[in-house]
Amino acid sequence: MPDRLSATFAALADPTRRAILARLARGEASVTELAEPFAMSLPAISKHLKVLERAGLIVRGRAAQWRPCRIEPRALKEVDAWLAHYRRFWDETLDRLDLNAMEKRHGRKK
Prior knowledge:
Number of domains: 1
Largest sheet: 2 strands, antiparallel
Oligomer: single chain
Strand content: 5-15%
Shape: elongated
Number of strands: 2
CATH topology: Arc Repressor Mutant, subunit A
Radius of gyration: 20 Å
Number of helices: 5
CATH class: Mainly Alpha
Strand order of the largest sheet: 1-2
Helix content: 55-70%
C-alpha cells in the first residue's frame, strides 16, 4: 500500500477528482449532485469518489437514503505541510535570482 501522501497526490492527479474536491469545498453533496456537471455515469463518479475516499480526501456518510460526501481537510493539510518546505525553497531561490538580476543591472558583482 502506498504511503498516504502518494495516494493523495495520485488522487489529485485527475482533473475530475480535483473538480469534485472543489465542489465539496463549498459543502456536502450527494453522488448525484457531484455527477451533474460531468458527462459520465454515476458508477464512474463513484469510482472517482472511492479513490478520493481511499486517499482520505473525502468522507462519505449515511443519512437514510442520502449518502452525503464531504471534504476531509486533514489530508489537504498534510499536502500543504509537505509543500511548505518547497515553497520556502522556491521563495528563497527566486529572491536570490531577483537580487542577482538587480546587481547585474546596476553593474555590481558578488
